Amino acid sequence: MPAVEKRPEDVHAPEAKPESGTVNGPDKWVRKPLASIPWEAMAPVPLEHVPTPLGPVPKADKLPAEAFAEPLGHYADIGLLPPAIYERGPRDKRIDAYQMTLDGANYASQFLKGPEKAKYLEERLDALSKFSQDVAPEDATGNAAATVPTPLIDNARPLIESLEKMQPDETTPAAGTNPEGAHVGTGSDWNTKLGVPEYRTQSDNLIPPEASCNMTSLAMALERMGYGREDAMGAIDGELRKRFLDEEKAKLAKQKGDPSTLPKSADEVQLPPGYFEGQVKGYLKAVDGAATKPYQGVRGKDTEEKAWDNVAGKYRENAQFEDTLDLLRYLTKAGGRTDLDTVTPKLLEKLEPDVEKRPTYRTVTPGKDMNWTKARGELSEVLDDGGAAMLSYHHKGSKNFDASHIVSVQQMQKDGLTIDDPYGRIRKDYNVAQVGDAYGEKGQAGRSVARKNQVDGAVDRANPRTMDSDWTAANGQNLNAGESLGSSSSVADSVFANSWRSLRFLQPPKPKKEVEEPPKAIPIPEPRPAAAK
To answer: 3-state DSSP call for residue 249?
Structure first.
């Protein structure tokens, strides 16, 4: 049996006998108890220079007693009200310190309820916005100035999720109209406001769940750039008003009617009741009609008239961002779903009509002048400047370079990436040159249940007339663990170095440099002619 090592506190040095005159008694001396040293005094630097793990939160009387039990320790003494955020040091150190602030806020929020919780969460998110502006790179502009630094996304996302999961009740009034925003407080969509994408799984999409990694990853990238569901729905309504006006003009021309009776522009059009729902139904019917296999259809199953009517009637109030993007793609004839290089620029034009505010889009691919190391360098610059990225890679193994999958890149790691994978969790030892799918076990050609995001069990594959409710925005805000396997996945460079197919970048627009006008020349007066003598 191996010897048991003594713990440090069990080892004592021999006690030295004190000098004469200091003993309390003839043969023994009394050991004086150690002084109770405050923890502040043991800090190696002045306390005001030390990053604290919590930002301002409600006072002690607003939190239950259990909030002040271990492991909070000394923070209980100040009622969870530490000093202001860490304001000194280089940018990366300040960001690292703020991770602790967000983690502390996530911990404290679980002890709050109702309006107090909603107010606290929004205060923390407002503070995060201000912090993000304060640490933005010098050349960051526009929306990028308020965009959360990528190392904080994984710490900030739970705060937003906590707020979005709150539902109105007798003490907490409802707020907001955006199905993907908060339902209490100000009703804001904090994902787009802060550039912290909601994790999205393709498995709950209306569009083919097995074939919609493109729109799902694009939705996360656009949220990073500050665009969300409301922007997509606004663009959809604009397209439908144009379509309706064109239809009315054609009808009037056929009847030789008076064109002055029509609205002067699409902005003045009021869509008649049922028109929106009819266009959605036509889109769903087209998706299903293009499917050669059930998994390529609506909700990945056979559907028919009754199911389309069911979805169309609920679409405006319930559809998720990625599904509205696909409807916009269909209405604008922007291109095939799988052709992001064609589709993305056209969708950006609809989501952001102002060309000076519109994000730029570009793609890099492997080649003679672009390897994974160089691509990582460009990726790092884009993310640090408040941009977004999508990575396409070959996931089938066996040197299959035809099929590919698209994920959203969340942040850089020293030897890899943190990604939000809409399909599931990639196997850590995946190698494109070896047999084995990235979402299966080693040597396994197919997918593993343990790695693929689950599909709601309520989906009835056998009945084409039925439709589940897992496609709604409300369910998207309440994913269970099996539906979010790909959230914040860490993937080593060794996985992507030889399997990556492309990196697609969305970047904030750069402001036009103002050309300074040269100073006007001051005319020099001609000397007066000498007076005649």
So the answer is: helix
